[in-house]
Automatic annotation (TrEMBL), chain A:
InterPro entries: Leu-rich_rpt, Leu-rich_rpt_4, LRR_dom_sf, PX_dom, PX_dom_sf. The lineage of its organism: Eukaryota, Metazoa, Ecdysozoa, Arthropoda, Hexapoda. The keyword Transit peptide does not apply. Transmembrane segments: none annotated. It comes from Henosepilachna vigintioctopunctata. This is PX domain-containing protein. One of its GO terms (molecular function) is phosphatidylinositol binding.
From TrEMBL, chain B:
The keyword Hydrolase applies. SUPFAM superfamilies: P-loop containing nucleoside triphosphate hydrolases. Keywords: Acetylation, Cytoplasmic vesicle, Endosome, Golgi apparatus, GTP-binding, Hydrolase, Lipoprotein, Membrane, Methylation, Nucleotide-binding, Prenylation, Protein transport, Transport. The lineage of its organism: Eukaryota, Metazoa, Ecdysozoa, Arthropoda, Hexapoda. One of its GO terms (cellular component) is cytosol. Its cofactor is Mg(2+). GO terms for molecular function: G protein activity; GTP binding. The keyword Protein transport applies. It holds the Pfam family Ras. It is found in: Cytoplasmic vesicle; Early endosome membrane; Golgi apparatus, trans-Golgi network membrane; Recycling endosome. It catalyses: GTP + H2O = GDP + phosphate + H(+). It is a lipid-anchor. This is Ras-related protein Rab-14.
Length: 454, 215
């Protein structure tokens, strides 16, 4: 990322080429700051407007801008001359304004998009007027990796505290805001940033200023760029890391530990109760899961699990979601999940429900879009005493004749308590269930208990 | 907009300076969190904290820059002096070397801040009376000679920590009222709350007293 104040001696501007678009000639300016560069496109009129402001407010000499031509010319020679003239103009102005860097000039060259200090100034301006409204409501804010890097960098680099006399641009506003934030979202930017060679996801950042954050959400970031995430161990309640190519839990839970899989008490994420690691590349849960003993909700949607992992260490876990994985078989899940109440296994390839028969705490089970063919499988769910919410749509079994009635029938007297596929059983369905049960009893030849007592 | 903690009329900017290990970060932590931070890590570059306080019936938000004491960060921390309304200069009463360096810290402060910046000298770790290396009288004399406010405090027990931050704010507030400190000057380190730009009426009411600050 560019840092003008550290590289002002190595800052250059060039106009190497021009470009014609819809009958207008654009000059492609390249700005070099140290090892970083980016390009900006302007037409002559933009230069003219800039120059007027610079002449009026910042003492730039009147006559250094190539003059306006009355006759619009498209001849290559003219454009080439003007390109050269504008290049020299920019170089002169940059040299002259290097120490002051007025806002109008740095915005003309897009410094506010690519430079640590000027990005922070733009944030400062925003928080100067809006911080209180963010903080008084949800205390939520979305930063990009570029911005959090700028904040991190600012703490560790000598920058001019205030080069501008305008208090709205005081960087303190950024730190003030960040230090009070509760919910922090960081969104990665993949590839290069806009028209620069900056790769935001490769920029390091830490969480030093975010002292009050209890909910952290990282979206499409590069895990290697995160420093000191561990300092949030005692405060973070809610952690979301999605689309970040995570292959192993220890990348996060032991991010700051050199020897993975050796544990001590200082590494425990005590406050963490909700963890969402959707859309990563996880295939298994490694032993580091023992560092989150207070986890209540775990979301592992869209990963690469082929079976249900062993989560018995999570004694407080009540909700597990493993949507869109590669799960085919589920055997004796109660030996892996224990006391689970809500289980979402939709969009997998589960064929048999035999493994579910002892999940006695289960309240809701989502099996949408799996490969359950045989209605007989439902009998494994029929003895779950707390089950209230069952979803089976998108399985072959849901297309058979009298599907709802047949499923409900398995639950016997509890049929009316089962909400199947988001619908409570209707009275006609319940009636049918009773009739079918009665017929079945007759068929089996045993006498219903009621008749026996007579 | 008048939600409790966001209702304040001024922002004062502070900076905390002093040698490594004198307890700058612990003082800040004690002041903002009211807790003592045992094994506090070395500050890298700068840290930041805020708290809203009440001075003479006015709610004031303190934005406090806590700087690294290590020499290698001096270039980083120097850039935070500008625009500070208050500077808390800390030494450790059990280590004379930290006291001996005060004059160099003071020179830095005087050079990099403006004349109206209030400088407050804090002798930290006064709970460690047995290991005392700098007497109260000596430091008190130093403070007097240089026109500094002075107190001995303990970030561990919390003794005098509040007082140091609050007295500094009071002094700054007085300067504003006396007209010695120009609110509109770029480097005064004092601002009106953003939502009330240009409000110069110091005696203006603070929207009633219904939202008493918790501090």
């Amino acid at each position: 990322m560019a840092c003008f104040w550290l590289n002002s001696q190595e800052t250059r501007v060039k106009i190497p080429i021009t470009e014609e678009q819809e009958n207008t000639v654009f000059y492609i300016i390249q700005v070099f700051v140290g090892e970083i560069y980016w390009s900006v496109k302007h037409r002559y009129n933009d230069f003219y407007e800039l120059n007027t402001k610079l002449v009026n407010d910042h003492g730039v000499a009147k006559d250094i801008l190539p003059c306006k031509k009355l006759l619009r010319s498209k001849c290559p020679e003219f454009i080439e001359n003007r390109r050269h003239g504008l290049e020299i103009y920019l170089q002169k102005v940059l040299k002259f304004l290097k120490l002051a860097m007025p806002r109008v000039f740095l915005e003309f060259l897009d410094f506010h998009l690519y430079d640590v200090y000027f990005i922070l100034q733009s944030l400062a301006l925003k928080f100067y007027s809006e911080a209180d409204s963010y903080l008084s409501s949800a205390k939520t804010y979305n930063f990009t990796t570029l911005e959090v890097h700028a904040i991190t960098k600012c703490c560790n680099t000598p920058l001019p505290a205030e080069n501008t006399s305008d208090k709205r641009y005081d960087l303190t506003h950024v730190f003030d805001f960040s230090s009070q934030l509760n919910i922090l979202y960081i969104n990665g930017i993949s590839g290069t940033y806009l028209r620069s060679i900056i790769k935001p996801n490769e920029l390091m950042y830490d969480f030093k200023v975010f002292k009050k954050v209890n909910t952290l959400s990282l979206n499409e970031v590069c895990l290697e760029s995160i420093k000191d995430l561990g300092q949030l161990r005692t405060t973070l309640k809610n952690l979301t890391i999605i689309k970040s190519n995570m292959t192993s839990l220890c990348q996060i839970l032991q991010c700051d530990v050199l020897h993975k899989y050796t544990f001590d008490n200082a590494q425990v994420w005590n406050a963490l109760t909700v963890m969402d690691l959707s859309s990563n590349c996880l295939t298994d849960i490694d032993p580091t899961i023992s560092l989150t003993p207070n986890l209540e909700v775990l979301i592992l949607d869209q990963n690469r699990f082929s079976s249900i992992p062993n989560l018995l260490q999570l004694e407080k876990l009540t909700r597990l979601s493993m949507c869109s994985n590669l799960i085919t078989t589920c055997q004796e899940i109660h030996l892996r999940l224990g006391n689970i109440q809500h289980l979402n296994l939709s969009q997998n390839s589960i064929t048999s429900l035999v493994g579910f028969s002892k999940l006695y705490s289960l309240v809701s089970l989502n099996l949408t879009a799996n490969n359950i063919h045989d209605i007989e499988e439902i009998k494994y769910l029929s003895q779950l005493p707390c089950l209230e919410d069952l979803k089976l749509t998108g399985n072959n079994v849901s297309t058979i004749v009298d599907y709802r009635v047949k499923v409900l029938e398995y639950f016997g007297t509890r049929a009316e308590e089962i909400c199947l596929d988001n619908e409570q059983p209707l009275q006609p369905e319940l009636d049918k269930v009773s009739i079918r049960r009665a017929l079945k009893i007759l068929k089996e030849g045993s006498t219903p208990a009621i008749l026996n007592t007579r | 907009m008048s939600g409790g903690p966001y209702n304040y009329s001024y922002i004062f900017k502070y900076i905390i300076i002093g040698d490594m290990g004198v307890g700058k970060s612990c003082l800040l932590h004690q002041f903002t969190e009211k807790k003592f931070m045992a094994d506090c890590p070395h500050t890298i570059g700068v840290e930041f904290g805020t708290r809203i306080i009440d001075v003479c019936g006015q709610k004031i938000k303190l934005q406090i820059w806590d700087t690294a004491g290590q020499e290698r960060f001096r270039a980083v921390t120097r850039s935070y002096y500008r625009g500070a309304a208050g500077a808390l200069m800390v030494y450790d009463i059990t280590r004379r070397s930290t006291y001996n360096h005060l004059s160099s810290w003071l020179t830095d402060t005087r050079n990099l801040t403006n004349p109206s910046t209030v400088i407050f000298l804090i002798g930290n770790k006064c709970d460690l009376e047995a290991q005392r290396d700098v007497t109260y009288e000596e430091a008190s004399k130093f403070a007097e000679e240089n026109g500094l406010m002075f107190v001995e405090a303990s970030a561990k027990t919390g003794d005098n920590v509040e007082e140091a931050f609050l007295e500094t704010a009071k002094k700054i507030y007085q300067s504003i009222q006396d007209g010695r400190l120009d609110l509109n000057a770029a480097e005064s380190g004092v601002q009106h709350k953003p939502s009330t730009p240009g409000r110069n009426n110091l005696s203006s009411d603070n929207q009633g007293s219904k939202d008493n600050c918790s501090c």
